[in-house]
Amino acid sequence: xxxxxxxxxFHRERFWPSLDGLCAISIFAxxxxxxxxxKVGLAGQGxxxxxxxxxxxxxxxxTLLLRERARTGSIDLTGFYIRRxxxxxxxxxxxxxxxxxxxxxxxxxxxxxxxx
Length: 116
Known about the structure:
This protein is mainly α. It has a domain at 3-74. The chain is 71% helix and 0% strand. It has helices at 3-12, 17-35, 46-72, 77-102. Helix 2 runs antiparallel to helix 3 (46-72). The chain is flat, with a radius of gyration of 20 Å. 3% of the residues are buried.
């Protein structure tokens, strides 16, 4: 298959099932590391799961940027960051709220963020 056809096929691909398996392996490595109490040996290699997850994320982000360049001829980084923010921030708000409320003194009144 010529290089142009391979590149076109790559840009058309929207889902790689093998990446789900790699993500599962990376999550398992981190969970096992924490469950084992940071021991040495295989259980102490949880940081490798983090590195694998970052590599997968980098691949997916690069793929998005290459698709945009192939589609429009350029990459709009501002638009890219806005799209990523709109996708990620709604899920971070409950996390921030739970961290804030978990650090709220128990002797004080109820956490104000919990009532919103």
